[in-house]
Amino acid sequence: MAGKCSMKKLFPEPVNLSKPKAQDKRCLLKNADLFVSVSGCDDAPGTLERPLLTFEEARSRIRMMRKDGREGKITVAVMAGEYRMSGFKLGCEDKNTDWRAYGDGEVVVNGGVSLGSECVVPLTEEEKARLHGDAPEKVIKYDLKKIGLTHDDWDDVYEIGGYSTGSRYDDYKPGVNCEVFADGKRLTLARYPNGGDCLKLAGVFDQGQPSQFPPQNFLGSYSPSRNPRPGMYAVDRETNERIMSWGSHEGIWIYGWLFFDWADGSTPISKFDTSIRAVYPAHVSHYAAREGGPFYFYNVFDELDAPDEYYIDRENGYLYIYSENENPCVEMSITKNSLIEINGADDVTFDGMTFKCTRANGIYAKCDGLTVENCDIHGVYKDGIFAEGYRLTVRCCEISHVGETGVIAVSGDFQNLVPCGSVIENNLIHNWAEVNVSGRAAVNIQAVGLVCAHNEMYDSPHTAIYYWGNDNIIEYNYIRDVVKLSSDAGAIYAGREWFHYGNIIRYNCLYNITGVDGQRPNGIYWDDTEAGQTAYGNLLINVCENAFLIGGGRYNTANGNMIVNAEGAPFCYDDRGRAGVLGTGWFRALQTPGEGYWSMINRVDRKKGPFAEKYPVIKEMHDDFSRVDDPGFTANPTDSEIRNNIVINEKTDCGLGWIADSVYKFGKIEGNALYLTPEEAGLTGINEGDYTVYPESAAAKAVSDFEPLPLGLIGRTLERKR
To answer: How many Cα atoms sit within 13 Å of 467 on the Cβ side?
Structure first.
């Protein structure tokens, strides 16, 4: 996909956001308990002068210290160098330990294997004939067997995408794809078309047996079945001719968004019939397919024709990469384990290290008191950090070029509303969701009482922050150039919960949420009757669709925000829940008493217990269909507010946007100031990137309760100690 969403005017990036402040140089840790070095020896005492060689031996020494009665914190100083490992595990006996980088050099934990010139072999004439353009001169061929690799290392091609359906078939083989990196950059399996471009389905001969069709059909007759009929799709003439030119049709896959732009999936191709321009997927599309659905072919040797593409001959063990560099630094992710795996080791710290090149997570932890700070995590297939437990801290890290999510934090007790004490702060997170796109975020919060603050997030196909739970605070984050490949998504997203009260989104800046190839993403999105959310003091600039999209929930407030250039509308607040009950809308999940979403109403005790005590407004909630006009009827947008917002929007026909009549009836919409230009608002500094609302401006006078935005505090305020 290429080309930005068309915006009437792009206002500049804010110039007075905070920048990271330099910290003191990292301590040299001369008094550490153990030292590890790539030039060390595991028979050594582990001192600065005679360090150990491996993390594993350091762990063994720590366990011996504990057996000898050592209490308190034990610190391991890791000297500069590259540590190759297939996964390092810590258990309950390894608690209360710090693993810290020592000195000025980089400490790298690498789960990959390097390929050098000793592996390079010439292309055959047949291979050259199948490649086109300048590919015969640019493609480098490596014999993986020369360094002892086998099929178990490079393995098969496995499905990607959050809505793939391979698991419904009896011949399904689960697995994770081996990846290839050149000069630090993730390569792409040879594909057609190249880059970010996609083809469009020319038609659908047969939908097959999808899980849900037509859309929003929640009937049981469309539930997943075993070995569903895959279907058959049509391609256009130009694509069909391209397919006919390929020397082999074996092993080719397609990936795309065949129905919804938020539901990605992949499938191998069982066969092509070029006589009728037909493509036969091996697996059905989860939500069926539609004419115009975007997709691309991949794992096609003949399409190895662009920089940063690769192909693996999995039968014979050859790797091919297209490279502009005659001697690139090439690595393959071999390990299928997380580089660091912690199960029950509480109060562990990793500080100042780089983790890269694995087919799992950078760090996977189930423990309390985990701290990851000043670390660099990149080139991992799954998540940079997955952490479950209380008192989690991720601070001053750079997490980039990960296949799925940057940080997942599962923290706190939802049933009893016990806060987690966890913090994700001052991190730089970018280029996530490079493998599995839909539903992957820079930060995924599933917590009670977590603070996500002062992070900078940019450049991704999907959401920046996804959150779930209660009493979480999302503040002072700078989010830009995200949600590029979806319309039905938001830079900050939560949805489909009635009892996640107490979450606060404040003092964040969202900039250039624009999408590509006609995609129209939203800024802050509370989906499908999400309730009890609060957003204030946020600055939203250049949002392609709605600055706020609120899907019919109750007790949601958006007050005191500043919105500049929301092309769709500043606010869209529908009443999908109420309309679904009344039979006047598309949202069918609330139409039948006791079924669908209504089953959620008894997830918590609304009359007594932690939720009733902390959020007394839930006591009035009911599901009595004879009282649909009562404020307590759960499907109504009761006590929601849009107040005291400043809006500068060149669209003259939308005002505040589209707000349902029932939101006016049950909520409060007042005190908002609308302007067409910065000049009209008295805020001409916006044209130079100064979004300060000065007291003498027309906007400040019109909204007397508007609190100044703390622009100088938004973004990262601490620079990592590296």
So the answer is: 30
